[in-house]
Amino acid sequence: MKVFIDKLGISYTVEGEGTPVIIFHGWGCNKEMFQFLIDEYKHKYKVYAFDLPGFGRSNEPKAFSNSEAHSDIMISVCKELGIVKPIGIGHSHGGRILIKMATKFKFEKLILTGSAGVVNKRRLSYYIKIYTYKFLKRMYSISLIKKLFPNMLHKYRKKAGSDDYKNASNVMRGILSILVNEDIRTDFKNVTVPTLLIWGEVDTATPLSDGKLMEKLMQDAGLVVFEGCTHYAFLEQRNRFITVLNAFI
Q: Are both 212 and 107 inside the same structural domain?
């Protein structure tokens, strides 16, 4: 099924009846990743799983946009579907959107796992890649350079970019560039609903220190660490993930 917000189609599934639960996936993923959670909760709740803008069967935004714009889209989606005061579950990029939503949309509770939202200090190698790319892009504006090396910029971007960046379309690359440089920690204090944070101990995409910062700054948050797990702790220990969610909900 799809719901349209300003001609942007957002794909979703819904199963069950009762208190609404909304599930947001991470960057480069889709709603199918959480099918195990849908199957678990559809007997007790009305579970909505969404493909976020630009992923799965949802349409791509037509222009670059930040997390504020993405949260506004998903708030409009919830209002269109009549979703009131849901329990929100989000991984990584999906968690970031839920955090932004929570500053102006009412939730019953939030569950964030490996949530994005904190910009950490970069290594020197990161800045070397960025400024090398900017230099090459500037050089590429010279017609002779472009004529002599027609694929130079594409090859460097393919070599130096992250997998998420390489696999994205031009629009989604632009959005990703905005999001990874957008620090939303000032919004943490405005998350007032009970919030469960679940983190992988060895998460390298959103390090454990991010979870600890959220626990400190959010008004009613608790952190559970899955030892030895990565950014996908909720998949690596599914049964434990469900057990912890059940206790919290």
A: yes
